[in-house]
Every structure is written in C-alpha cells, then in structure tokens.
Amino acid sequence: xxxxxxxxxxxxxxxxxxxxxxxxxxxxxxxxxxxxxxxxxxxxxxxxxxxxxxxxxxxxxxxxxxxxxxxxxxxxxxxxxxxxxxxxxxxxxxxxxxxxxxxxxxxxxxxxxxxxxxxxxxxxxxxxxxxxxxxxxxxxxxxxxxxxxxxxxxxxxxxxxxxxxxxxxxxxxxxxxxxxxxxxxxxxxxxxxxxxxxxxxxxxxxxxxxxxxxxxxxxxxxxxxxxxxxxxxxxxxxxxxxxxxxxxxxxxxxxxxxxxxxxxxxxxxxxxxxxxxxxxxxxxxxxxxxxxxxxxxxxxxxxxxxxxxxxxxxxxxxxxxxxxxxxxxxxxxxxxxxxxxxxxxxxxxxxxxxxxxxxxxxxxxxxxxxxxxxxxxxxxxxxxxxxxxxxxxxxxxxxxxxxxxxxxxxxxxxxxxxxxxxxxxxxxxxxxxxxxxxxxxxxxxxxxxxxxxxxxxxxxxxxxxxxxxxxxxxxxxxxxxxxxxx
Length: 486
Known about the structure:
Layout: H1 2-27, H2 40-51, H3 59-91, E1 94-95, E2 102-103, H4 107-115, H5 120-158, H6 169-182, H7 192-220, H8 240-257, H9 264-268, H10 276-306, H11 324-360, H12 365-368, E3 370-373, E4 384-387, H13 388-407, H14 411-439, H15 446-477
Antiparallel strand pairs: 1-2, 3-4
Helix pairs in contact: 2-7, 2-10, 3-8, 3-10, 3-14, 4-5, 4-14, 5-6, 5-11, 5-13, 5-14, 6-13, 7-10, 7-11, 8-14, 8-15, 14-15
C-alpha cells in the first residue's frame, strides 16, 4: 500500500514538474530570457528603419558623380554584398549549431566567441565609432530637413530668388532634446513600435522624392545626365582631380546607405526561436530588395531630373520648390524617420556601456536601481522605470553627438566618411571571417579564396571612399564657420 502511495506521489511530482517546465517554456526561451516574439515583418521593419535613412537623399548626387553606367552597377553591387554578408553573419548568431547553439546577444559577442578576444578592441572601435558617426549624421540630416521646411515657407512667401538663410543650430538642439527623452527606452525589445513608424516614414519620403523626380523629368521633357557622370570643364568648375574625389565620395555615400550590419545581431536577438537565422535571411532579402528598388529609382530619377546639378540632398537642396507642401511633408517624414533610426542604431552602444557598468559596479544603487514614476496616477497603468545612470550617460551621449554635429555640419562628407569606415570592417571583413570559423572552411579552398577576394575588393573600395570623403571635408573647411549651418 505504501509503495503504491509513494509511486503515485512520485508520478504527481513528475507531472507537476513537467507541467511547470512546460508552462515555463511558454514564457522563457532556452537561455532563460523572456520569450522573443519577433518575426519576419518586425525584423524587416527594424532593418528598413536602419537602412533607408538619410543616405537615400544623397543617391541622386552619387549617381551624378558616377554616371548612368557605373552608378546603377555600384548600387546593385553594394546591395548584393550587403545581403550576402548579412546572411553569413545571421548564420553565426548561435555559436556552433545555428539551431541549438549558444546565443550571441551582440555583434561583439559573435566576434569574441569565433575569433577570440584579441580583436575585441578593434570591433569596439569600428562598431561604436560608426554608431557615434551615424548619430552625428542623423542629427545633421534631421536639422537640414527642418531648415528646409523653414526655407520652403520663406521661398513661398518671398520668392525663389530670396536667399532665405536659416541657421541649423536651434534645430539640432531640438532634435537632441527629443533624443534625450526617447533614449530612456531601455532596449530593442521596447522600440518595435518606433521602428514601425520610422519604416513607414522612410517609404513616405522616398516615394515623394521618387514622384517629384518623375514629375521633374516629365516637365523637362528629357532625361538628363551622361554615361560617365559629371562633366569636367569650365561650365561645371570640376577638375579631373575633383571628379576623382567626388566619385570616391559617392562610393562612401552608397556604402552608408546600405549599412546595418553593426546592429544585425542585436536585431536578430528579438526573433522568436527556432531557426532565427532563417527568419533573418528572409527579412534581409525583403528589406534589401525593397531598399535597392527605392534606391535605384530615387537615384536614377533624381539624376535624370537634374543631371550634373543634382543636389547633395534631394529634398533639401531645393532642386524641388513646388508643390511646397508636398516637399514639406517629405521633410517631416525624414525627421520622424531619423528620430526612430537614431534610437535603433544607438541601442547596441547603450547596452554595451550599461552592461559593462553593471558588471563593474554590481552594488551601485546609482547604476542598478530603478525609480518608478507613475505616468498615469490612476488605474493599473505600469509606472515608468527611470534608471539614473541610464538617464545621465545616454543624455551625455546625445549632447556630445549634437555638439559635434553643430561643429561639423557637412552632410555629404559625414555620410561618405561613415560609409567608408564602417562598410568593410563591419559589413564584409568580420562577417566573412566569423563565417569561415563557424563553418570550418579550410584555407586555400575555392570557397575560402572567393570569400577572401570579396573582402579585399571591398577593402579597396572603402579606402577609395574614405580618401574622397576626407578630401571633401578638407575642401568644406576652407569656407566653414562653426555653428553657422546654412
């Protein structure tokens, strides 16, 4: 009798434990963290928010520097490389087996677990400097769009011949103030809504820019531009050396327009199991295909509309004046998009600094304790959790990037430099090296040689782009006045 009772008790215990484990699996993933719920569409929204940014606005100018032959070829080439290397990196989200292997939560962890700790400092420099540079570029781009709205109103009231000069310092401060507030959102998992809004805005202004380009071509009655791009000579005041630097700078602008590898692992960490790499591959295909189509159309029609005179920023360089209200809507959409893109790009850096601080000072109340602030004092609404360290450090970061943007408001040059310095190491070199280690591809095999050849070619392109963009900054500094963005 007692044996039967003990057996029944054991069965009950096993059943309870089993039910508990089953219930727990409904709420937690294999690493003990809350269950991830990301899918192809939320992941695509994150990627599109990151990819279709201010870079699209410089593509008409970039196409003008390269011409009708090289321009589209370079765009397609960058899209292929970005998609391919993104798939390689996505495969390595889990170490060992892509289905059951240990998760890597950040780009840095992927590098560390596959290539060792010796390269950690390199990845820190490349990834986080690129994030800082992107934040600066987005601040500049947002202020330029806000200035364009102000100038558009001025042109409409006083005529197109009026210079309507506007300073961008105040608009940069406004953008920075908003980012201080939004930067208190703790992590990637809580900004999906922001990415969705930003993705819609990116398609909005890209579509408007495309539509205005098509209308301008129809108005002109001809397709401007040439096979070789901007012509040299007295009419354009472009020398052979300047044309070379501008062509190199155009490569950097296009590279910047495709950059999202530095946040790919962080985005993939929001995807629900299993086979996260397959979801990421589909999302990358959808995102890169859509952005390439937009880029090709925006760049091509912008160049077709303005030829050699294509502005550095299609919607703020005032190639278009009318309808002014539509241009204003496009610039409002740019600002809203950049508000979200800024947060998506900066989350890896925010997470790294805060996790390092927690590990270094585990008993610090300033770093670890949250203060609950009730947003709505009645009902069951959850209070806002405010962390003082997060408030202080993220606010300081935003202030720093805003100050640098006010000191160096060169949109095209900053875009080119960030694209040049971020493309090869983050989008090409590290993903290829990590994939080789993960798949254990032997040296000097055909596949190894092809991967290394791709890496070397992209390195040479990045060096050319960096050279051209730095030359552009040097040229701009000759006529530059701090805090006098016009």
